[in-house]
Amino acid sequence: RIESANGGSAKVELADISEHGCAIVGGTETLRTGGFVSIALATGKPVQAIVRWVRGDRAGLEFLWPIPAEMADWHNLMH
Known about the structure:
Elements: E1 2-4, E2 9-10, E3 13-17, E4 21-25, E5 36-39, E6 47-55, E7 58-63, H1 72-78
Antiparallel strand pairs: 1-2, 1-5, 3-4, 4-7, 5-6, 6-7
């Protein structure tokens, strides 16, 4: 789930993920380049990110901080 700073929220699909960012599919209608968002998996706490690009129904997010090792749910998706 992604939430933008302007209050919009949507369910999204992760298309790519690394320790420093991810790409999403869907939920881009309220996103703008340079905007701040939070993104959370169904089972965890949200991660803060900045929108680096939006192209149609896809967007690239850069996490404000690398995903810490204790967030195993995110690290499981990376591997």
